Amino acid sequence: MYTEQKDNRLKPLKIHCPELEISTEPAVLESHGCDWTRFRTPDATAVVFPHNSDEVAKLVVLARAHQIPLVPSGGRTGLSGGAIADAGEVVVSFDRMRRIIGFNPVDRTLTVEPGVVTQAIQDYANQQNLYYPVSFASEGSSQIGGNIATNAGGIRVLRYGLTRDQVVGLKVIDGRGELIECNSGLVKNASGYDLRHLFIGSEGTLGLIVEATLRLTDPPQPSRVMLLAVSSLDGMMTVFRQFNDAMNLTAFEFLSGAAMSYVRSGHDLPAPMDTETPYYALLEFDCPDTDTEDLALQRFEFCLEDGSVLDGVISQSEAQAADLWRYREGISEAITKYTPYKNDLSVRISEIPGYLRDLDELAQSRYPDFEVLWYGHFGDGNLHMNILKPADMPVEEFESVCGRVNPDVFELTREHNGSISAEHGIGLLKQAYLSYSRSEQDIERMRGIKAVFDPANILNPGKLLG
Ligand code: S2G
Ligand code: ZN
User: Fold this and answer.
1) What is the pLDDT at residue 39?
2) Which of 315, 374, 401, 450 is disulfide-compatible with 225, CB 3.0–4.6 A?
């Protein structure tokens, strides 16, 4: 929709940044004005496609001078509305900054522009017989700049940590238009505050990432995947302890029986085993030799005998391992058509059974008519709570009903010393609830940091801190 405000934002860009690629095509405004969330209507003034960091810096200086709000946009796979432009902002897309700048075989580091797709980084690392370990369902379209801005986690955090733990160098254009170079790829650097860790996870509110240097690691050992039918939440904790204390786990994921039925119907997958059960565990572990496989089977036998596991399968090939992973990784895509209302919650691992029981009770009492699916990264305390929208309920009504229960969900999370956002970020959708996980003093401290790097509040305004 055209407005004078939009015109006043567009004119300076066209006059002072003639080299900048700008689109006001309705289809581009629509596609680039949102992420994977569907609860807002995109309404951007324009989408710009800088080709290099100089263009980004010039744009930010101009935006500051003319108070033009900027929304950074990567692969647009975010799930908390962090890349939504619904208030006439200018979207800054990094689609034209997709170069792999350099690889250093001695340092085992890869320097890339922010628009490089996550999967391309994994593939490049594999070609060097190395490994980029951060992996999640949207890796085929998410961009590394967005992964860093949200500190993306995924399925291998248990072993390799989050995106934050892979970044050894960062170049950022902050809200003053200044280029800030962080850490330059050093392994050790005790020269004061590590500013890189302020920008990682700041959701585009402190600076625009224009280059990243990532550390690559050794390729993984041969591994095996097990999918286990687990009888209860306490049983899930037994299984986790039995395998985590004995094996070198790469991942320990879980899904509810309801999630299993949706992923099976969504991808037309066969039943993975005869037994149907309230919960499933999907775990992956290093398995370099038959002794390790015997140890895994021994743990499996123990869990069968104590009743925590009712059935299970173990992969016999890489293809079968990939087939088993589909039961976990295919969930998100399978339920998209139900416009799920997502909560992405985390507690310490030891808290999970009690927390999940309390949450499930709350969900059943407050959402008696809704279907709630549970899945996530049990091995790092991250639970994904997805409430499916009833087919006959308008999206706005559904969002408002789910939103009314958020205070109870987040109060319960606070009681368990958890976080209202484990890996998807605060963005727009969780902004109003930030105080359930951060004290007022903390929020003031973050505002102080924001004032240093984005004094005019043009970087992703309304997101994270509001
Ligand atoms: C997962 C992906 C997004 C979602 O599957 O681990 O982080 O919540 C999620 O479906
Ligand atoms: Zn996740």
Assistant:
1) 79
2) 315
